[in-house]
Amino acid sequence: MKKLFTIFMLLTFYSVSSTFAQFVISQGISKTNIDLSSETTLGQVTINPTSAGKVIVHFDGQCIADVGDRIVLAASNTTSWGVNDGSVAVEATDADVNRKPFSHTRVYDVIAGSQTFYAVAHNYVETDGSGIASIYGTLTAEFVPAGAFLVGFQGISKTNIDLSSKTTLGQVTINPTTAGKVIIHFDGQCISDVGDRIVLAASNATSWGVNDGNVGVEAVNADVNGNSFSHTRVYDVVAGSQTFYALAHNYVETDGSGIASIYGSLTVKFIPTGASEVGFQGISKTNIDLSSETTVGQVTINPTTAGKVIVHFDGQCISDVGDRIVLAASNTTSWGVNDGNIGVEAANADVNGNSFSHTRVYDVVAGSQTFYAVAHNYVETDGSGIASIYSSLTVEFIPNAITTVVENNDENSLSVYPNPAKDNIFIEFADYKNSNVTILNAEGQILQSFDLQDAKTQVNLDNYATGLYIMNIIGDKGSIVKKIIKN
User: Fold this and answer.
1) Which of 248, 263, 218 is nearest to 89 (CA)?
2) How many other C-beta atoms can be found within 10 angstroms of the C-beta atom of residue 46?
3) Using alpha carbons only, what angle is made at residue 59 by residues 184 and 389, rounded to the nearest 5 degrees?
4) Angle 97-101-105 (CA atoms, 0-180°, nearest 5)?
């Protein structure tokens, strides 16, 4: 793993202090018996980026509610929630099966400066219960600076759409100029007919795959007909245009109309090779005994610096009536209480599948780190304890942001000249070994990427227009900021 250097090329020579890096802040949410009769802020996180970019805000977990209440949940940049794709809603099936998983994502454009994001809940429209609920989850805000990383997003609001065939609900196209990985996430809620099973998927094609390639949801009855869902995929990509899709299909169980309403978010994040570390495992476990804590998947990464790791475990669980299956993303082979897990239960022998989502964020040091997807039949064990889990375990390492102050000729033995430049520039860097250079324009589009082969390297600018360019050096030292321009 390599640390990120950022070099700016501008007309004048001067010292500058700046941080151009992605970072993440999270809050575990553990609220027991909270009154949600009005819009309620369950948690909040504040970030303070020094440059413009995007923020991916994600709120997932579980909600335990009264029968007759509909609990609206949202990740938001205000203390309120929005309609349709601006929130998800859950309802208890009955007094026993009263816990429901949820997942909601938003992406916001931000400028430099303090920004606060919220986890919001509200008992709304259906209020025949007490309005009291318990919510255990995680609020995550991930800042992605404009530049080498790319984030695409589409809010999806489809009312009464025919899903009798495979249907594209939304799509996002990105155009990286280098190879890397893409994390694609599709979450939200689906309102469907009794008797229909609606398959939902994040995909790199206009089709979905079996088992961990999709999730399925079903209405319990004509009143409790909405379900939150979450599905994640990770793909290796090369440079060039790439399109990713949010898909839905009424499949296998088709006794309803095949008409459904889907309100959700399609989020696509591109991570250039070498800029960060992403691990992924698709999980496909059929009829597995969960009578004890069971590791259903694991991912190992090996960062060479300190940072944070976002661990996300989502998909679907098919279980027996009478069992409560606890599921968790964890840095151990065990799960924790409250926001350290979520639980799902089958409504009946037919409606026995639940989509789920659980996220944890951990501080890590350099060295090998393993993270786990854990499952356990716990407390409610009147069924067989056998379940099938089809899901994804995603691990994203984010190095701690580095801020340094440097000049054109500095103690880090880095020099970029001439300045301004006409045809060529030279990079002299004593610590060139294991370093990769990525050149971007002022809009953050990657123009070329290459490894430094020598302490002095020439870069041809003939095909570059006059103006500002950005160079990211990924190496083994700290962060350097310089500026120059092509004339």
Assistant:
1) 263
2) 10
3) 60
4) 160
227 within 8 A of 218, measured Cβ to Cβ: yes
What is residue 401's DSSP assignment? P
Look at the block and give the residue holding tokens 């069924």: 383
Angle at alpha carbon of residue 333, lines to 328 and 335, rounded to 5°: 40
Of 279, 135, 259, the residue nearest 195 (C-alpha)? 259
Strands 467-475 and 436-441: antiparallel
Q: How many residues does the chain have?
A: 487
**Which residue has better confidence, 471 or 219?**
219
Q: Tell me the three-class secondary structure of 152-198, residue by residue.
A: EEEEEEEEEEECCCCEEEEEEEECCCCCEEEEEEEEEEEEECCCEEE
- CB of 102 closer than 8 Å to CB of 88: yes
- Judging by DSSP bridges, how do beta strands 40-47 and 132-145 pair with one another? unpaired
Those residues with Cβ within 8 angstroms of residue 373's Cβ, 6 or more apart along the chain or in another chain:
281, 283, 295, 296, 297, 298, 313, 327, 328, 329, 330, 391, 393
Q: What is the pLDDT of residues 187-199, one digit of tens each?
A: 999 999 999 999 9
The span from the CA of 266 to the CA of 307, in Å, is 26
Instruction: Look up the pTM and report it.
Output: 0.81
Judge whether residue 244 has pLDDT over 80.
yes
pLDDT over 90, % of the chain: 70
Residue 195 region by backbone torsions, left for phi larger than 0, else alpha for psi between -120 and 50, else beta: left
Q: Is the pLDDT of residue 329 over 90?
A: yes
Cβ(487)–Cβ(420) below 8 Å: yes
**Dihedral pair phi/psi, residue 418, rounded to 5°:** -70, 170
Q: How is residue 273 annotated by DSSP?
A: B
Q: What sign has the CA pseudo-torsion 316, 386, 351, 128?
A: negative
The tens digit of pLDDT for each residue in 377-421 reads: 999 999 999 999 999 999 999 987 543 333 333 445 678 888 788
C-alpha distance from residue 33 to each of 100, 119, 133, 248, 327 (Å):
15, 16, 5, 35, 22
Could you give the strand order of the β-sheet that contains 167-174, starting from the edge strand earlier in sequence? Answer: 167-174, 242-254, 196-203, 215-218
d(CA 280, CA 129): 41
- Give 6's contacts (C-beta < 8 A, 6+ positions apart): 18, 20, 21, 470, 471, 472, 473, 479, 480, 481
In degrees and rounded to multiples of 5, residue 112 shows phi and psi of -60, 145
